[in-house]
Amino acid sequence: MIDSTESRLIHWHRTRNLMFVHIGIWLVFSFVVHAFAPGLNKFSFMDFPLGYYMAAQGSLVVFVVQLFVFVKQQEKIDRDCGVAED
Amino acid sequence: MSLFRMTGNFVENLPKIYGLYTGGFLIFVGLMAILEQMGLAADTIGILFVAFTIVIYAAIGWLSRTMQVDAYYVAGRQVPPVFNGMATAADWMSGASFVAMAGGVYLNGHPYLAFVVGWTGGYVLVAVLMAPYLRKFGCYTVPDFIGTRYGGNLARFLAVVVLVVASFTYVTAQINATGTIASRALLIPFEVGVWFGLLGILLCSMLGGMRAVTWTQVAQYIVLIIAYLVPVIWMSNKQGFGVIPHLVYGDAVARITELEQLHQVGVLKPPEAVAGMSALVNKHSTAAEGAMAAWKFIALTACMMLGTASLPHILMRYFTTPSVRDARKSVAWSLLFIFLLYFTAPALATFTKLQVLDPNLATSIIGKAIADVSALEWIQKWSSVGFLAIKDFNSDGILQINEFFMREDIVVLATPEIAGLPYVISGLVAAGGMAAAMSTADGLLLAIANALSHDLYYKMIDPKADTRRRLIVARVLLIVIGAAGAAVASMKLTGILGAVAWAFDFAMSGLFFPLVLGVWWKRANRAGAIAGMGVGLLVGTWYLYMVYAGGMTPWLGIDHLRFGIVGAAASLIAMVAVTLMTPAPDAETQAMVDEIRVPRGNTILGASH
User: Which of B301, B380, B530, B538 is the most core-located residue (most Cβ within 10 A)?
Assistant: First the structure.
């Protein structure tokens, strides 16, 4: 696809949607799970109380994996719309 | 002459160069271990560790000297993503992260993990909302983006003000930390240690600017991560938890919950306080019930995350990658390298607590006779320097949980000794702490000096200045700001962590929304940005003053550590309201925003500007 106005519009549309998806995941693992920590602590995961685990490790793992996935997804969008760097 | 001049070759050879460097460092550690066995004094080992690493950083700084503007400001934009990730991780992990974070988790339990979550999750915002777009912009500094996107000197000036306020708050704490570590390792007074630390910091940054800081930060990351992981892995292996303790310390967490019952943690409170130290009164893994506790956790996490995404010394690291794609990749690598330390800190806190509390372990002290505990070598050593204290409040001769006081930083610094590891490990930890504090101080000082020299001096005061003059001004400012930071640090005004949290709150109050909306909201205009930065910083500062010194009851539990919530909210409201009341930006600015949203094509600002 050539670098036309239309492909740029599609590119920004997809980029924005991807942003919302990742900000959504970020909201859940930054805030929502920790708001329910006392409840989650009643469950155990790998012998950890789950609420404690999410704050000490779980959310962090999600953020790391999420960013590497995000990089791949955004690169695909850039290539599909013909706006990737050479 | 030197291999640092042959740029192409140098970048290709990076893995080899840093591989050799890491091998050399490990050989040095091994040599120290052998010398210790042969009877070299502990103090000498400490001095050799700190002195040797600082000499290496200074040598890298010297080899990276430059008189080119783009090399000085953005390392010539040739830093590969993985190496920029390491440099960012060193830039990011401060003396507080290294020395005090595990201790914070130890003493405060679950609520403190808000820092751990906040200081990692912020990178999601950096990658998704900011870094690639700022890289496409091609700016040298963060105010450079604000000044060009919104136009006008006032917007640029306000961005410089927010940057200086946030970064200076932070750098003082870092110079303080270098002073503390240098004074202890080199056996010199704290006030001298502060100036010595500053000298080391300036040696790394002055001659080569961003280029020198980049390559020293990579070297510092390698030292600090080895220094953090080795004692934890060694200790966990000794306790039978294996070499990847992170996955299996769930049992230890459960055991601590039992021991908390036994020792009545949270039930026994110290009848009187000891200045600068705390006794353990908080549960380890139990999360407080109720909406207020949840809100306080979330508010602190949010402050640290939005602050991360607004701190100029972090954002400017992503200006140094060769491309937009590399900037994005580099954020992911940064987070991975930071994660290695941050998911280790709670494990370290757990193991150390188990060592101290579990009566089945030979190392435990709680519930033992005070006479025996006071005879332990590490207790004597660290209480003589004011890091821990024992008070027999009920005069029964037994050490209860509320009679043992400690400083946060002792968990990392004394763990090797508590667990009975050889002294060479303590020397390694001192070198790691020094690397963490120095690398962050370097990044912060450079961010401040670059903003003042590029944005204030070159863009606003003397746009005709030639390259030579610009770079001399930049270096003079670096020395002046460093000296000011050291002078403030030697006055010992605040604890390390208070000042660090404030830096995040200042940054998010003034810069978060003007930066994000500058990319994501084309309608955002100059008047709105000026209002956003000005109102955010003023309201945030006012609120901090009122709750910290003015005696005001915090709104909704938003205390002085979380004042960024108030500042950023004011900033958002002011920015949106004023933008909507004033005309949309001109077509040229809107086209510029369209241009930064696509990776392909030239940067908005030229390679040299």
Answer: B301
